[in-house]
Amino acid sequence: MTPDALPDRSPLALAQALIRCPSVTPEEGGALDLLARLLEAAGFAVHRPRFSEPGTPDVENLFARIGTGGPALLFAGHTDVVPPGETGAWRHGPFDGTVADGLLYGRGAVDMKGGVACMLAAALDFVAASGPGFAGSIGFLITGDEEGPAVNGTVKLLDWARARGERFDHCLLGEPTNPSALGEMIKIGRRGSLTGKLTVHGRQGHVAYPHKAENPIPGLLRLASALCEQPIDGGTAHFDASNLAFTTIDVGNPATNVIPAEARAVFNIRFNESWTAETLGAEVRRRLDAAAGGSIRFTLDLPPSNAPAFLTQPDAFTDLVIAAIEAETGLRPVLSTTGGTSDARFIKDFCPVIEFGLVGETMHQTDECVAVADLERLTAIYRRLIASYFARP
Ligand SMILES: N[C@@H](CCC[C@H](NC(=O)CCC(=O)O)C(=O)O)C(=O)O
Ligand SMILES: [Zn+2]
Ligand SMILES: [Zn+2]
User: Which of 5, 164, 354, 364 has the fewest Cβ atoms within 10 angstroms?
Assistant: First the structure.
C-alpha cells in the first residue's frame, strides 16, 4: 500500500493496515488517521478531538457519524495497544501484520484492532449497500487511551459528544470477550476496581536493639493477612465473588542490620454490584481497624476509583446480538460479567452498552494473533446485527 492509498474493505486488509500503525499508548501511530480517511470516504462526518490533562499525556481520539436520526447505533473501541515487550521474541514482527497458517499476527490483533477492523468492514459494507440515506445513524467512538490511564479517552470523548448533542440508543463495544471460541461470550457488565495503598509506620533502629525500635513489617503482614483471609462476599446473581489481591509489598531497605521505619503494600479489589467504591473502602477500613487492634499504626490511602461495577439489563438489543452470533457461529453466547474492567463503564452513562468481540486468548501476549476466519465471522456477525437493527419496525 502506498502511504496515501486506502486498504480494501476486507476485515483482514483493514486489520493488517491498523496493526502496521505503531500506536502504543499514547501514540496515535497513524491508526486514527487511517480510520478517519476510510470513514470520510464512506460519507461519515469525522471529528478528531485531542484531550489533555496535567500529568497525563495528550491523547488523540475519533468520533464519526453517518445519519442524524434514530435509531442510532454506536460502535466503540480503541486503537491504542500495549507495548510489544521483547520484539525479538515474536515469531513475526509485532507491527508487521503477517499472516501465517491462517493466523494474523501482531500487537492489537485481538485487542482490539482486529475488532475495530470488523466493525468498520461491516459498517462500510452496510452503508455501501444501503446508501447513506438509510433510516437511522451509525457512529464510531474510538479512543487512543484505553490501555493507558484512560483519562483523555472515552470518558472525555463522551462528554464532548454529549455537548454536541450527539445521542445514541445502543452501543456495541468490540473488546475481545470470548475466552476460546468466537460466539461463546457477551459481556453485559463489568466488576469494579478499587486500589488501596497501605502503609504501616514503625520506628527505625538497630536490629540488635529491637526494644529501641518498632518494626513495621510484622504489623504489615498481620494486616495483609487479615484482608486476604476472609472472603469479601459470596458473589451475586450476575457477578462472581469480589476478590482482593496484593500486588506489591515494599520496604526498600538496603541494610541488613536496620529495622525500617515504614513498610508499604498495594492491593487491588475487583468488586461486584453489592459494593460501591465508598462502601467497600469503609469495609476495608473496618477490617484493618479490627486487625490493628489499636497497636499497629497504619495509614490507608484509597485513590478515587473511576471503575464502578455495572450491569446492563439484557434487552431487545442483547437479543439481536445473540441472534446474530447464533446465526453465524451456531453458538449461544453466555451473558457474563467476568474479567477486567473496560471503557463500557463510561459508556453505560451515555446509552446501554454490551460487549462482543474476538477471542481474547492471546491479548497482551507475545505472538498475539487472530484467526483470519474469526475476522470474517465477526464481520458477518456485526453486519447481520446492523441489518437487523435498522430493519426493526
Ligand atoms: N488502563 C485502564 C483500564 C484497565 C482495564 C483492564 N481491563 C482488562 O484487562 C480487560 C481484559 C478482560 O478482562 O477482558 C483492567 O481491568 O485492569 C484504567 O486503568 O483505567
Ligand atoms: Zn482492549
Ligand atoms: Zn487490553
Answer: 5
